[in-house]
Design brief:
By secondary structure, the protein is mostly beta strands. It has two domains: 80 residues, Immunoglobulin-like (Sandwich); 60 residues, no CATH class. It is 6% helix and 54% strand.
Amino acid sequence: MARLLLIIVLVISPNVVMSGQIPIQLLLHDLCDESPIAIDWEIVNSIGETIKKNEEGKYLLQDGENYFVTTVYYRGQYMRLVNLTFTAQDELHRKVVEIPRIAKFHSGNSVHFDEVFLNCKDLCAGECTDFYQNDTPRLKGRFSDGKPRGRIVYYNTEGEVVVIEKYSKRGTLRKSITKKQD
């Protein structure tokens, strides 16, 4: 009888947290907007199973397991694919993924995607610099109609150069150099 009751409770209550599972809320924060938003994510575990949201809008993830997370986000007509991996941890119950003010987005159709840099809702033009919340530069570069011209330099939160991308006059990436960090 006790087994039957346990089976009934598990079937009726899909939001019951099993041992080792962590309810995690995933949010996206476009730094051009005021606060994070809840959107639909596709979450896949290490054996390829897709994890669905429960009724409270949280994902029940196994503690210590690695997950691949992806979604599509739009700023107006421009699209950005957001991909990340992370390990579920008991102390992590809310994860906020940030989209910087200046970021790469895509326009076009499913056959051809043009890549452009947006500064919030506008195409980047002229000298542009984006900053971390601690006021150190995150990205510096020159743009024309959203296309990079010359070098785009990316920095870490301590202000050290981490990546230098070199672009043609047409805005095509020619070379990307990743700097080794100590």
